[in-house]
Amino acid sequence: MTRDTTAKGRDRRVYKANALVEASYSMTLQELRLMLLAISSVSSKRPIKNDEIFTVRATDYAHIYDMPLNQAYEAMKDAAERLMNRKVRTFDNHNRSEEAFQVMEWARYAYGEGYVQLEFGKYFRPYISRLSTEFTSYELRRIASLSSPHTIRIFEMIWQYKRTGVYSLSVDTLRLRLDLGKSYMRWGNIRQHVLEPAIEELNEKAGLSISYTTKNEGRKVVGITLRFEDTLAPVVSLSDKESMGDQEQESSGEACI
Questions:
Q1: Of the candidates 81, 100, 76, 109, which has an alpha carbon nearest to the alpha carbon of residue 24?
Q2: pLDDT for the residue numbered 166
């Protein structure tokens, strides 16, 4: 079975289990954009079938992410190849365990046809489909103009707490979730190159107003609290109305691992 992202037209939402929002992984901007566009065509109310293929067209990619069509072709081809090698780690704090699995099972780029076909990995699928509780959803347009994968990931993390507008996590948790590596062991590097650029871009492009404070142990910064408001007027679409019955839940407590 093949599903086409074009079928959803302009009405696109991304649904993710909170465990996936809080997972550890690293992707380029183009990989993340391609994955999210494919996820936006997934039904959140039913499971993804075995061998179900999702088709993403370059015309949609170019339109949503506001880029020339020829650049969209190249970005999608490169992203599809890279996604085949990407893994995600999720964490179960209650059972003190973690899982690692592939994002994609299969990918195909059709030369001269302007589309990519993707099959989500077997263990990845439950995190984006048949979601009834503890999930986060947002309109794809909210993040379409963002220029950093870190900014998109931070948007998803705080959006879990959109009802309260307050989100706290440890510096170590942020480092782990974004898979920042050894070059970001110092708080100053995270603040200067990840957190503050993300906040600035989200304030400018995503309709948010964000500020943050830090938690210190002695002179060391160990935690962050972000406070935010949604400055965009709500747009009620068909999928919004359908999802009003969904039990979209925020995570409880401080988001630490």
A1: 100
A2: 98
